[in-house]
Amino acid sequence: MSPAQRPASERVRVTASRRSAPRHIARAVADELSDQTALGDIYVRGLMRAQLRLAASLLMLTVLLLGSLPILFAIVPQTRSMQVGPLPLPWVTLGVLVYPAIVLLARFYVRASERLEADFVDVIGRG
Amino acid sequence: MQLASLLAIAAVCLATVSVGSLGLRMSRATSDFYVAGRAITPRRNASAIAGEYLSAASFLGVAGLIWQSGIDILWFPIGYTVGYLVLLVLIAAPLRRSGAYTLSDFTELRLESRALRAFASLLIIGIGILYVLPQVQGAGLALRQATGWPTWVGSAVVAVVVFLAVAAGGMRSITLVQAMQYWIKLTAIAIPAFVLLAIWSRGDVGSVDFGDWAIPSTDPVGLYTTYSTMLALCLGTMGLPHVLVRFYTNPDGRDARRTTVGVIGLLAVFYLFPPIYGALGRLELPRLAPGSRLDTMALQLPGAMTDGLLETVLTAMLAGGAFAALLSTTSGLIVSVAGVIDQDVLRPLIARRSGEDARGAATYRLATAIAVLLPFVLSRLLEPLGLATTVTLAFAVAASTFAPLLVLGVWWPRLTTVGAAAGLGVGTLCALISLAGAFLRVDPGDGWLAALVARPAAWTAPLAFATMVIVSRLTPSRRPPHTNRTLNRLHTPESLLPP
């Protein structure tokens, strides 16, 4: 039925929108994130770069610590036959000592990356 | 002696199935089957991941290889552990935040391509089977060592037990089973090690000279082998299907990281023990029993050093532990491979045939049966290669396919669909060449060629990475349209997201 045909007597209920008008005009940064705006992208990209830097430096450290061992054993012959108590140094290093080192690296990483994320949440929360 | 070992193996199998059926009563929705409804605490999840990850290759294979080849093998367990460190810093949290169930889901989410999803699914099935194969073969060897039965019996036992455990409750029951199995394995490897060490130290110790066996190799080929193995293990861990699926069971990205640290700690404790077996074996077991394989070295050690009741008990513990290792790794792999077969093969097939959605649990169980049967049949057809060798090949395949896809997918916004496809293709092709060389027993002699084929990761993984980067640079217009949105999702802490 087009409006022209509608009988004049028919009533139409008119109500106000139940939703109140948006209070804050200034957008929170958190909204920028969830709305996928260009600004949100820039914030996350910053966090990503910081996390990637952390990951890369940790991996470099691991490569330096562990990766240097085969070469060290190859070019410094004394390290191959040195004794630590009753056991040879290469066995103590590769069989035992590397493991606590790996665990420490992992714990350090988790703390550092959680700190990065906490800082990020702080900045966004304030914005 | 046979009876005790048999009882230990039977007990492990029974525990696996009964805890598995406990999960049956708790599994309701499809997500329970796949990822345990994603509500598992970091502590239990860490035990479960470690329990699942420590396969027969770690329990028996590494000890046997150390016995044979000496100190260079110590890099294997180091690599298995560092793999989790690499996974932790590169992909643990983002992957959990992606919210995907499987590696195929992640591929589709990030690259927005159905074709790549299908390719990823095939790769998962391939890697999964390559990893299950030595476990199934190892089961046959362990049971033959304990009882003298033919190898197919052990393989069949593993296939049936794993099918029952997985089909019963999927991921939730498996989480319980795996968490329990870590502690079984640790006990089973630690107690005999302490007892045997005590026996050895009571004897005439004197000064021990291991000769060349105890000295790291220093020739270029030896160094290449060490580094290539390390690269395969470090990068390959993140690309193993059963490892990734576990990360989706964490409640959020933060917990995913904490779980990983727990895993590293648990692995570090376990890997202190295999070298003890290798070294004691070198001292007390100069020659393996005729006709037995290298992988059963640790099982023969108690017989060489003790006798009577003590020998029986120690051998039974080791056999039970080895079986626990086989069962847990196999069930973990079967869960993920079955998930992929169910989601990407069976359901689409049934939907096309009947025009309606298939019922969840029924197709999942059918998929489980298929996933168990494939490696079992293969294990009857292929001559075993050695546990740790085959497993390392699976790591190398994962390192040259999924590792570049995951790392670049998580960190590099310019990855394109074409680039990812090209990289996966090149990685798969190289891996296939090396696999064919290994399984067809092509003998390339001793020098560089042999090392390059047997330990391919040092050239295949960089090649796959480079292909992905270069082809992506050449095809900038093929960036997935929602790259930014996806990356935001991967890297934004959960506390900032709307619930």
How do the strands and helices of this protein lay out in sequence?
The complex is a heterodimer of chains A (127) and B (499).
Chain A: H1 29-34, H2 38-75, H3 77-81, E1 83-84, E2 87-88, H4 89-126
Helix pairs in contact in A: 2-4
Chain B: H1 2-26, H2 30-35, H3 42-53, H4 56-69, H5 75-90, H6 92-98, H7 103-111, H8 114-147, H9 151-202, H10 220-236, H11 241-247, H12 253-270, H13 274-284, H14 297-305, H15 308-354, H16 360-381, H17 387-400, H18 402-411, H19 417-439, H20 448-454, H21 457-474, H22 483-491
Instruction: Say what oligomer this is.
Output: heterodimer
> At CATH's second level, what is the architecture of chain B?
Up-down Bundle
The structure class of chain B reads: mainly alpha
Superfamily at the CATH H level of chain B? Sodium/glucose cotransporter
Kindly give the count of domains of chain B. Answer: 1
Poorly predicted runs of chain A are: 20-26
Tell me the helix content of chain B.
over 70%
Helix count of chain B, per DSSP? 22
Largest sheet of chain B: none
CATH level-3 fold name of chain B? Sodium/glucose cotransporter
Structural class of chain A: mainly alpha
Low-confidence region ranges of chain B: 32-37
Features:
heterodimer; A: mainly alpha; 4 helices; 2 strands; about 70% helix; rod-shaped; B: mainly alpha; Sodium/glucose cotransporter; about 80% helix
What can you tell me about this protein's structure?
The complex is a heterodimer of chains A (127) and B (499). In chain A, α2 (38-75) packs antiparallel against α4 (89-126). In chain A, a hairpin with a 2-residue loop joins β1 (83-84) and β2 (87-88). Chain A has helices at residues 29-34, 38-75, 77-81, 89-126, and strands at 83-84, 87-88. Chain A is mainly alpha-helical and 127 residues long. Chain A has one domain. Chain A contains four helices and two strands. With 499 residues, chain B is mainly α. Chain B has a single domain (2-202, 209-388), classed as Up-down Bundle (Sodium/glucose cotransporter), CATH 1.20.1730. Chain B has helices at residues 2-26, 30-35, 42-53, 56-69, 75-90, 92-98, 103-111, 114-147, 151-202, 220-236, 241-247, 253-270, 274-284, 297-305, 308-354, 360-381, 387-400, 402-411, 417-439, 448-454, 457-474, 483-491. In chain B, α3 crosses α9 (151-202). The chains are: A mainly alpha (127), B mainly alpha (499). Chains A and B meet through α1, α2 and α4 of A and α5, α10, α12 and α22 of B.
